[in-house]
Amino acid sequence: MTDGELVAGDAPRLLHFRVSHYNEKVRWALDHKRWPHRRKALVPGFHLAGVRLRTGQSKTPVLEMNGRRLVGSAHIIDELERLRPDPPLYPADEQDRARALALQTWFDDEVAPAVRRVFWSCYIDDAGPCSRMASNGASRPARVAFRALFPLLRPAFRKNLGLDRERVESARAALDGIFSRLESEIGAKGYLVGDRFGLADLVAAAIMAAVVRPPQFSYPLPEPLPEPLVALRDSLAGRRGYQWVMETYARHRGPSAEIPAS
Questions:
Q1: Under a CB-based contact definition with an 8 Å cutoff, are residues 217 and 116 in contact?
Q2: Which of 114, 97, 115, 71 is CA-nearest to residue 199?
Q3: Which terminus has fewer CB within 10 Å in the chain: N or C?
Q4: Bridge-based pairing state of the strands 62-65 and 13-16
């Protein structure tokens, strides 16, 4: 039995935030490779003690696999590709692979913090919708506790996500350039690198899903959406990059490989 041929009992387990675009990258990679896995959804803020105990740090996603704990979406996807190269995400051509990895770095390091900041800014001032979004899918006691504690948690979220007015305004102002860069990378066949779906497309679509929110995203947001998010999406819907994200999800976000809870 190879590393990539695990029985159900040994299936990888993903510790993740349902709402997160970084976590969506890994969910999509596992699903694309049709790799059966289990998932444990965590509640932001409530996750800190458990994740730090397991990994010595507090970020998700974390993939528990083969007695190891892998941290960070880029590192996890790299390991998934190594262990199960078919169907591939990395281009075979070295130059194309280097370009795909460079695009991943840009989306992870530059784009993701900005679009996350914009997304959370649409929620943070309204305790009810923000609590429903952040704790969606958790047990009822966890949801009730999160809502009760949210006034105490909100300052930490503001600080950790950079939700002060100056940085939110800067992130919103950056959206035009982000979409322009994405649009400039779309090739004649609709892919960012080469002529088939791969790493760059998965990363770009998953990261941009923070503000686009395609219907095929793994976990839909609780309705009704806050008015600022609706207005933001409406303002972006005419952009080619917005439509590219929607189309990429519709064409390539296949069925989940998650093993249902027994």
A1: no
A2: 97
A3: C
A4: antiparallel
260's CB contacts (< 8 A; 6+ apart) are: none
Cβ contact 29:214 at 8 Å: no
Q: What is the DSSP letter of 9?
A: G
Q: Are 151 and 51 in contact (CB under 8 A)?
A: no
CA 28/CA 255 separation, integer angstroms: 9
User: pLDDT tens across 23-70, in order?
Assistant: 999 999 999 999 999 999 999 999 998 999 999 999 999 999 999 999
Residue identified by tokens 């130059």 is: 95
Residue 106 per-residue DSSP state: H
Helix axes 227-236, 112-121, angle to 10 degrees: 130
Rounded CA separation 236/11 (Å): 39
> Going from the N-terminus, what domains does the chain have, and what CATH number goes with each?
8-83 (3.40.30.10), 94-252 (1.20.1050.10)
Q: Does this model's pTM top 0.90?
A: yes
